[in-house]
Write a structure and sequence with these properties.
Blueprint lengths: L1 E9 L6 H6 L5 E8 L6 H13 L4 E6 L5 H10 L7 E6 L2 E3 L1 H10 L7 E12 L2 E2 L8 E8 L3 E3 L8 E3 L3 E11 L5 H25 L5 H5 L4 H13 L7 H13 L6 H28 L13
Parallel strand pairs: 1-2, 1-4, 2-3, 6-11
Antiparallel strand pairs: 4-8, 5-11, 6-7, 6-8, 9-10
Helix pairs in contact: 5-9, 8-9
């Protein structure tokens, strides 16, 4: 067992949470669930999982905290739940470790040199049961494991990343899976919610003339995250509204070979690269036309 605490945020995650926890195959010493008052069976499932984990010397602690935004909720979980293990890890309820990543963490994490404070993982996204391998979606490089107290989630409304306060990072070679089993209605509701967050994030950035890249640039995250943010803010948003969603879809689906991901890929790339980006532009246009400001978003109700 690795001296590791895994922090997971939940809201109505009874369909995903068990497979997330079980994917660790007993290597994590503790799981911390920070729930924003689920209305499904998430809490009762956590009680069952704790009883099961206790038999192997692990544990699951369930907390509830009022949702403000993702970064605030995650940082609360990292700082207010008495984490005493050497390592902490951020996971989403719809994510899983592949078996070879479980082995890699188990073997490598305890042996890392003291100057290594963060571990970057490779994530692959599944959609409707299919691995979305093309369209520039794989691999996503994410700082997910870090020495306890050495990282925070940057305080952003959208596209927040873990930031390492000091030390070096290392990249593991095996994959983490994003495999949400909820249906397409939930997915579109979630992205409608995301679109409001993105418009608000953009409004605040323009209004305050903030340099969105400062935290990433002055701390240790991943080069991929920095490049994506620079391209998005300095390139994508410099293009005309609505036209830019066309260009982005063409880039993802044709130039980056998204069409090789089959019917599931066609749906995913169209909805995620075109429909979602067009929706964000439409809401920006509405706000500008009627001098409207998006309100801060509560947690996802779906």
């Amino acid at each position: 067992m690795v001296d590791l605490t895994v922090v997971i945020l939940t809201k109505n995650e009874e369909k995903n949470l068990r497979k997330c926890i079980e994917s660790f195959q007993g290597i994590a010493k503790r799981f911390v669930i920070v729930d924003s008052f689920s209305t499904d069976e998430t809490e009762s499932l956590c009680k069952k999982l704790h009883a099961e984990l206790s038999k192997s010397g692990s544990r699951l602690d369930f907390y509830q905290n009022k949702w403000i935004d993702y970064a605030t909720q995650l940082n609360w979980g990292l700082t207010q739940t008495n984490i005493t293990t050497e390592w902490s890890m951020r996971m989403d309820a719809d994510e899983e470790l592949m078996e070879d990543l479980v082995e890699e963490i188990s073997l490598k994490l305890p042996e890392l040199m003291s100057e290594i404070n963060g571990v970057i993982l490779r994530r692959r996204v599944y959609f409707m049961g299919r691995w979305i391998k093309h369209g520039g979606r794989y691999p996503e490089l994410l700082l997910r494991i870090f020495r306890t107290g050495k990282a925070i989630c940057e305080q952003k409304i959208m596209d927040e990343h873990m930031i390492l306060s000091e030390g070096q990072t290392i990249e593991f070679k095996k994959d983490l899976i994003d495999n949400n089993v909820k249906d397409l209605e939930w997915w579109t509701n979630k992205h409608n919610w995301y679109s409001n967050r993105e418009v608000l994030d953009r409004q605040l950035t323009v209004e305050k003339a903030l340099n969105e890249d400062s935290l990433l640039e002055n701390s240790t995250s991943t080069k991929q995250a920095k490049v994506k943010r620079i391209v998005k803010n300095s390139g994508y948003y410099g293009l005309p509204k609505f036209f830019r969603s066309h260009i982005y879809f063409i880039y993802r689906y044709y130039i980056k070979l998204g069409f090789l991901d089959g019917p599931e890929g066609k749906i995913f790339h169209f909805l995620q690269a075109y429909w979602y980006r067009f929706l964000v532009d439409a809401k920006m246009y509405e706000c500008e036309k009627f001098d409207k400001k998006i309100k801060p978003q509560e947690d996802l109700k779906a």
